[in-house]
Amino acid sequence: MQGATDLVINQVRFDSRKVQQGDVFVAVKGLQSDGHQFISKAIESGAVAIVLEEQNALKTLPEGEGFGGAVIIKVQNSAAALGMMASNFYDNPSEKLKLVGITGTNGKTTTVTLLYRLFRELGYKVGLISTIENRIDEEVIPTNYTTPDALELNKLLALMAERKCTHVFMEVSSHALAQHRVAGIKYSGAMFSNITHDHLDFHKTFAEYLKAKKMFFDNLEENAFALVNKDDKNGLVMLQNCKGKHHTFALNSMADFKAKIIANTFEGLELEIDNQRVWFKLSGSFNAYNLLGIYAAAVLLGEEKSKVLEILSNIEPAAGRFDKVIGKNKVFAIIDYAHTPDALKNVLENIQKTRTGKEKVITVVGCGGNRDATKRPIMAKIACELSDKVILTSDNPRFEEPEAILEDMKKGVPQDAEDKTLVMTDRKEALAEAVKMAQPNDIILVAGKGHENYQEIKGIKYPFDDKKIMSELLES
Ligand SMILES: CC(=O)N[C@H]1[C@@H](OP(=O)(O)OP(=O)(O)OC[C@H]2O[C@@H](n3ccc(=O)[nH]c3=O)[C@H](O)[C@@H]2O)O[C@H](CO)[C@@H](O)[C@@H]1O[C@H](C)C(=O)N[C@@H](C)C(=O)N[C@H](CCC(=O)O)C(=O)O
Ligand SMILES: Nc1ncnc2c1ncn2[C@@H]1O[C@H](COP(=O)(O)OP(=O)(O)OP(=O)(O)O)[C@@H](O)[C@H]1O
Ligand SMILES: N[C@H](CCC[C@H](N)C(=O)O)C(=O)O
Ligand SMILES: [Mg+2]
């Protein structure tokens, strides 16, 4: 440390380009660059304090002026310090709310969206932080992230508290955990849905990915609930050394909250929960887990069981999750955000289970660029194994060449599936081709982009909406 800490600061910043007179700049190491390189830039722009983890970075600063008079604070981990500073700067908003977070590879958006809708129906003012959008009760705030950065997150929570929200449901991504975006946040409850293959580009190994998810539970306080899916083999791992109150849910093993699938159709699920049989508007056994987790969280938050089930049974799925479009000629399209091997397998198995048997299943799927490349051949293989026809196409190519992504996917196409597989780079053309192929009653699964209303190519988001395009194609 160098200089006095009883200093009035204007804003906390971790991007030198945003620093203004009187701000504190936190130098965070990133993947593309290192915030420590921008300390002199931050001081030039008026930073009065610098938080850093690499003292050596100061050596590159111009001598003589005592770092422009800025106070220097060395910490062990700048990203974690940023999280705690952001919480303090906004007066610890998470402590003023009942904040429940969920982590897991799949099911987070579904869970928080339904919890948000359920608690609004129960009469509360509710906040939502999700991949699709953030909400302060009915006000929609667009987002580019599943979990916002520490400053955005605390700013949003502070607004929610100010507007008298009582409950907030948020997704906690593994990126956010690894980058300490949620350091300093106090939760009333933490949930774990599942962990399967994804994001190995970022975490490198499955063990590291698991460790990131576990951080959420390791940092939980005693009075918070820790609710995990016990049927996932890593569910109980989350609870190891977790100080929170342990609770489990499961379909196939002993657990505190249990459900049984009575029926699973295209339209929805009938479940038996706590001796009550209830129909829900979500289809697929994976959604039985989401619904049970939602029910358990609501009960742990003190809500009445039968009221919760009654309301939950009328709630619609989140946008782009098993979202159905039925065409004039009775062709069914299902728009689904399945962008991992497990999600794609689950959705296709659900289609296989609930179909009558005569119709064809046509799958249109792509994989995102600048994301885990190892999932590409696996997803192509799953699509081929569980569909009658497959069209491999682009998702969000980002900064990669779409053809290179498709080459990776093609490696997973089994030899005996080559004849039924087409490769079409242009996603719109791929969708049109699927519609052209389909006969009445056939099912087209459009996987990967769900609710997204853009296609991201070389840094630009072009308008693109799977559901809108399919609706138009099926009507024409
Ligand atoms: C992989 C990832 O998470 N990257 C995030 C990360 O970027 P980065 O590590 O590359 O940062 P960097 O560009 O190297 O910069 C390092 C530091 O220097 C600072 N800097 C940089 C340049 C400069 O001139 N001055 C300056 O101070 C930056 O502000 C930053 O603090 O930090 C950036 C700033 O916070 C984020 O915008 C960026 O998100 C990128 C855009 C992203 O796409 N993230 C995705 C993968 C993501 O987070 N997804 C998860 C959901 C995933 C899932 O579960 O499905 C999410 O929660 O949304
Ligand atoms: N509990 C579940 N288990 C496995 N697959 C699921 C589950 N819930 C949903 N899915 C599948 O995963 C897809 C994504 O679901 P959802 O958006 O709820 O997950 P998410 O965890 O929020 O994903 P992201 O990490 O991208 O934010 C769905 O479209 C569906 O195909
Ligand atoms: N939150 C996920 C979303 C993936 C969605 C898919 N459409 C893609 O672009 O890969 C991610 O950032 O990896
Ligand atoms: Mg999500």
Automatic annotation (TrEMBL):
Cofactor(s), names only, from the UniProt record: Mg(2+)
Positions where N6-carboxylysine occurs in the chain: K213
Reaction catalysis annotation: UDP-N-acetyl-alpha-D-muramoyl-L-alanyl-D-glutamate + meso-2,6-diaminopimelate + ATP = UDP-N-acetyl-alpha-D-muramoyl-L-alanyl-gamma-D-glutamyl-meso-2,6-diaminopimelate + ADP + phosphate + H(+)
Chloroplast in keyword set: no
Domain Mur ligase central: start-end pairs: 102-297
Residue interval(s) of motif Meso-diaminopimelate recognition motif: 395-398
Domain Mur ligase N-terminal catalytic: residue ranges: 9-90
Domain of life, per lineage: Bacteria
Binding site for UDP-N-acetyl-alpha-D-muramoyl-L-alanyl-D-glutamate: S16, T146, T147, S173, Q179, R181
Keywords: ATP-binding, Cell cycle, Cell division, Cell shape, Cell wall biogenesis/degradation, Cytoplasm, Ligase, Magnesium, Nucleotide-binding, Peptidoglycan synthesis
InterPro entries found in the cross-reference section: Mur-like_cat_sf, Mur_ligase_C, Mur_ligase_C_dom_sf, Mur_ligase_cen, Mur_ligase_N, MurE/MurF_N, UDP-N-AcMur-Glu-dNH2Pim_ligase
Cell location: Cytoplasm
Enzyme Commission code(s) on record: 6.3.2.13
Pathway annotation from the record: Cell wall biogenesis; peptidoglycan biosynthesis
Ligand binding (ATP): G104, T105, N106, G107, K108, T109, T110
Domain Mur ligase C-terminal: 320-450
GO CC aspect terms: cytoplasm
Primary enzyme class: ligase
Post-translational modification: Carboxylation is probably crucial for Mg(2+) binding and, consequently, for the gamma-phosphate positioning of ATP.
Residues that bind meso-2,6-diaminopimelate: R371, D395, N396, P397, R398, G448, E452
HAMAP family cross-referenced by the UniProt entry: MurE
Assigned protein family: Belongs to the MurCDEF family. MurE subfamily.
Function: Catalyzes the addition of meso-diaminopimelic acid to the nucleotide precursor UDP-N-acetylmuramoyl-L-alanyl-D-glutamate (UMAG) in the biosynthesis of bacterial cell-wall peptidoglycan.
UniProt name for this protein: UDP-N-acetylmuramoyl-L-alanyl-D-glutamate--2,6-diaminopimelate ligase
Organism, as annotated: Thermoflexibacter ruber
